[in-house]
Amino acid sequence: MLNIRNLKIILFSVGIILPLVIMPKLNAGSFGAEIFCTMREGGNDHESSWEAAYTYIKKQKGGFFKTSPYQAASQIIETVVREKEKFSYCVEYLDNLYPDRKAQREQIRKERKRKRDEIKKEKERKEIENIIDKENNNFSNESFDRYSY
Known about the structure:
Layout: H1 4-41, H2 46-61, H3 69-82, H4 101-141
Helix pairs in contact: 1-2, 1-3
């Protein structure tokens, strides 16, 4: 059974370790948002700004589990929303962090269909060329007599 001394030691340990584990994550997300928003405001494109912020968040998070892009985007959005006054200029860029997945899937589907159609057309064109070549070979082997009726 836990006595009061053991309980105090456990609570003291949790009180020291928990902030050490949580604080880097919060600071990384906050500074990651700063990086993303500052780069976007400076005129950089979404990809370079996102890569810089995501790399920083991954590097600062550390630990056993890796930070996914989805988690990093959530951290940036949470920071921007939490600190509206500080990041008021950055709200317009947040939609790029969560692109419309349905539109992306539709675009990928259209691209695949276009490629299949191109392959199909090319295959049909080659078949037609082969048929024409065969017919031309048949005609070239025959001799025509213009005056035979």
